[in-house]
Amino acid sequence: MGAIGRPMAAHVARAFETKVWNRTIERAASFAQEHGLRVAADPSELVSWADVIITCLPTSADVTAVAHGAAADWREGQLLVDATSGDPAEARELAAWLAARGVAFVDAPVSGGTTGAEAGNLTVMLGGEPPHVGRAETVVRPYSGKIRHVGPVGAGHALKAINNALLAVNIQAAGEGLAALVKLGVKGAVALEVINASSGYSNVSQNLIPERVLTRAWPRTFRLALLDKDVGVALKVLEDTGVPHDAISVAKQALGKARAVLGEEADHVELIKEIEKAAGVVIE
Question: What CATH number should be reported for the domain whose range is 5-152?
Answer without folding.
Answer: 3.40.50.720
